[in-house]
Design a protein that fits this description.
Layout: E1 2-5, E2 8-11, E3 27-32, E4 35-40, E5 43-49
Antiparallel strand pairs: 1-2, 3-4, 4-5
């Protein structure tokens, strides 16, 4: 998880989840109140208290691997 602070990327948290090559998996990112979490295939692998996020953008990236993103959606949870 990264944040952009005054134009500079700042690492907030990191986690590793290994999957075999050519394997699709589900990822769910949530920010509720002051906490953010990442679940992969229903398993929470990352949790971080970040404070209130008032606005911003969401980005997806892979590292050291080719990746595809399908059925990406954004919705406000109440």
């Amino acid at each position: 998880m990264n944040a952009i602070v005054q134009g500079t990327k700042v690492s907030q948290a990191a986690a590793r989840y290994d999957v075999p090559p050519n394997t699709w998996f589900d990822a769910e990112i949530r920010h509720v109140g002051t906490s953010s979490s990442l679940r992969v295939n229903g398993v929470e692998i990352l949790w971080r208290r970040q404070g209130q996020i008032k606005s911003g953008r969401v980005g997806l990236v892979t590292h050291a691997a080719q990746g595809s993103f399908d059925e990406v959606s954004w919705r406000e949870l109440h």
